[in-house]
Write a structure and sequence with these properties.
The structure is a single chain. This protein is of the alpha/beta class and 273 residues long. It contains 9 helices and 12 strands. Strands 1-2-3-4-5-6-9-12 form an 8-stranded mixed β-barrel. It has a two-stranded antiparallel ribbon with strand order 7-8. Strands 10-11 form a two-stranded antiparallel ribbon. It starts with 8 loop residues before the first strand and ends with a strand. It binds 2-acetamido-2-deoxy-beta-D-glucopyranose. This is glucan endo-1,3-beta-D-glucosidase. Belongs to the glycosyl hydrolase 17 family. Its EC number is 3.2.1.39.
Amino acid sequence: MEHSRFYYYVSAILFISGLFFPDMVGSIGINYGQIANNLPTPDNVIPLVKSIGATKVKLYDADPRVLKAFANTGVEFIVGLGNEYLSKMRDPDKAQVWVKANVQAYLPATKITCITIGNEILSFNDSSLTDNLLPAMQGIHTALVNLGLDKQVSVTTAHSLSVLEVSYPPSAGSFRKDLVGCITPILNFHAKTNSPFLINAYPFFAFKSNPKQVSLDFVLFQPNQGVVDPKSNFHYDNMLFAQIDAVYSALASLGYSKLPVHISETGWPSKRG
Ligand SMILES: *[C@@H]1O[C@H](CO)[C@@H](O)[C@H](O)[C@H]1NC(C)=O
């Protein structure tokens, strides 16, 4: 959801691998948004990324300046295919040209491991965008297969939490009914190609839209009573984990309980806009 508002967010990608928080985050990544003024040059971003211990970076595009600057740094990259290019990627020749120019050209010096096809596509309720999503994912994946890169580069897309109809309690998590028809084949694509389900999850927005009901401590990982899911009996002491479990429940309800879920964006405001 990159817009200028994003300037004020510390945005992170968390790669989750366990149950409790210190073990839970296998590694930390950051979203490198570029819709802002006064941005440091890519060369100057490298020490910033390293200083916070991030080993992964997600771009919203495949900016050549950034991908060149990070060559031989060991930092892993998720690159993005912009929403505006989706319809073209149905065409296998165009998909191959895109992968060659934006991914293959930087490998192996820059460690690109994943491509996100569009960002929060299903939340626009735009049927032409929605209809192009899976064909574009398939087109890019086929190009990677043809170039012998599919084992090192996976293909996915990042969803907004608004793809869920129910997110509380977490055990009742389910997808919007009108999206089930298009999400199910996408989940099948993930299962077949071994790629993760990406979710942009913002407890902050839940707080902002409902500040009287939602406790700030629950949103900000501060000590609080937490909530108990009446069905699973799981106790949640922060909203982020509750949101992610709602996603797992939604996936399970469609028969995809084994798909890995990665948090592709989260964050809190760091400054008043
Ligand atoms: C998309 O449709 C859903 C379900 O009808 C609705 O809740 C949501 O507000 C819509 N979003 C936009 C951006 O129009």
